[in-house]
Amino acid sequence: MKTYQVDQIKNIALLGNSGSGKTILGEAMLFNGGIIERRGTIEGKNTTSDYRPIEQENGNTVFSAVLYTEYENKKINIIDTPGLDDFCGGVISSLFASDLAVMLINAQNAVEVGTEIHFRHCEHSEKPVLFVINGLDHEKSNFDKSFEMMKERLTNNAVLIQFPVNEGTGFNSVIDVLRMKMLRYGKEGGKAEEVDIPAEYAARAEELHGTLVEKAAESDEALMEAFFSNDTLTEDEIRKGIAKGIAARSLNPVFCISAKNNMGVDRLLNFIVNEAPSITDMPHIKNDKGNEILPDTAGPSSVFVFKSAIEEHIGEINYFRVLSGKISENLDVVNVNTNTKERLSQLYVCAGKNRSRVSELNTGDIGALVKLKNTKTGHTLNAPGNNWKYEGIKFPEPKYRTAIKALSESDDEKLGEALNKIQLEDPTIIVEYSKELKQIIVHGQGEYHLNIMKWHLDNIYRISASFNAPKIPYRETITKSAQADYRHKKQSGGAGQFGEVHMIIEPYTEGSPELTTQKIAGKEIKLSVRDRDVIDLEWGGKLIYVNCIVGGSIDARFMPAILKGIMEKMEIGPLTGSYARDIRVYVYDGKMHPVDSNEISFRLAGRNAFSQAFKNAGPKILEPIYDVEIMVPSDRMGDVISDLQGRRGMVLGMSSDKRFEVIKARVPLAEMNKYSTALSSLTGGRAIFSMKFSEYAQVPAEVQDAVIKAYQEEEEEE
Fold first, then answer.
1. Coil, strand or helix: which one is 115?
2. Which residues pair with 627 in a beta bridge?
3. Span 295-321, mean pLDDT?
4. Can you tell me the distance from the alpha carbon of 369 to that of 334, in angstroms, rounded to the nearest whole number?
5. Number of C-beta neighbours around residue 377 at 10 A
6. Collapsed DSSP state (helix, strand, coil) of residue 44
7. Domain 622-713 has CATH 3.30.70.240
8. Helix count and strand count (H, E) for the chain
9. Which of 6, 97, 290, 464 has the most CB atoms in a 10 Å sphere around its CB?
10. Which of 22-26, 227-231, 244-248, 538-542 has the lowest mean pLDDT?
């Protein structure tokens, strides 16, 4: 393969709802470019991009696939993305590596939920969008409806480049209002025959051509002046204006195709290589130092890894984009994220699982590397001397969680290794080994997302595992002050153990004043603060440890041991065994023995005194509260709000976003189990949501009683 220069490279991501035809369009693009000799089909399970067993079994794209084609002496890198929102990680990472999103719309179904979701991803990533209405050969195709819904639900910047002549089962022709010709295709598709526009379509073509000219002129002041002077633009001027409008995201061209019959694909490819933006047309990416990195082949070599995969017989593959300079085989680079050296011993371009070895790649190009030791998604590889890195890809917060356990203890290690590999391929899956809950918690984007993970465990890694409702990471605290003292005394032959600790505990809130006196058993105790430790707990909240010892009743060297004992009990609350937080402890008195006192004595005395005081201080369970944002069609808003209220949710506010209503609420995590499934059922899959941890809050009394009872029953079973 030849080495393409920066102005010869175009990078696109194929987006759209599941079933919109992305994978089949990819096949047609590769076929027209001569990369493959025959086009695969979903039914035949032989497409270039859906080569994984799970994809062939389900008939859906699960992982993004990197492809390429060559057309008119240019190279188009194509990333085929999943259509289901559960696999949004593949969409987001693909957009990061692309300069243009090609959004497919099924002409039968028009704008679907996935279309809207993917378009929002494009807006969030600030990537230009080109629309393709596909499936015009279907008997229920409705081009006009698809276009109107596009304008209504997605963007007013959509402009027709083409419209179909005879959509339906006999579809074979489109009117191209840029070229002002009719494109007619043979039975096998491929290259179109250009003919004059039939008289019955001339008026509509002229009208749409005028709209296109006006939209193109709006993208450039010089073109606008030319338009006002001449009342029109030349074809070259229109193309220039379109290209600028696409790059500025002020114009969204709309094309007509039948990917299955390879009709319209040639014109789409021609438009992409000539009018679509390249890396030099897009805003320059910034490094972590805030400096722009110029897309210059003569600049320092720098690449960003946007995707990692594991394949049988090969191992780990890292897919990257060259953001500066050029890279070649056997180049030594530095992984700035891990501060390790890597050698680029094997360099490839990929068409699905088919890889072609190349000697070098220039700025803007996409390739793959194998046999790297310490590199994964989100890492930056630079030539020595360049210490910058890129911020990377911001994946959405998880929406679904489950606990996983190997059915056989002998598979525990294998399960851990398998989960690490799964997470490497899909960074939106987060694996948490919870010491607190004594569970492996897997976080993902939805139930189907984690069902696919289960399929891989069953069929690829051959590990039988159970999936259960995860425990809730409760916290415990106190609601009032309490006092306790404890004497630890042990005598066994030689040296004994002795330590006595007197303490007061109280709830801690930021800015609350410290106690100065406390009445205990009718006697007022004065608390003279000698020292304090403010401990930010790993699990959230604080422990304030206050030394009020006067007169040397406890030697200062034993104070850390007392604190250690307290921390041991902070890790096991008395109500549910959960972590405790937000407590202030005053150690104000105690006793020592000149011989038998030691660190272990005071650790045990401190632990037991704290335990006694905690039980008498009105212990209360706290639960994690999440901020939840739901985008829902207005006609389903009432059902969603009612459901949230049934989940102890508090609706904070509502707003509108195009045709969606945005509901903001606070909901306990305990009530969010399988919410993605429930929301989909309530709205027919038309709503999406995100959730993010907010804070811990006290649970209602009746909920606390139920939680404690469940914990006690679990302890009895064990």
1. helix
2. 666, 692
3. 93
4. 14
5. 23
6. coil
7. yes
8. 16, 38
9. 97
10. 227-231
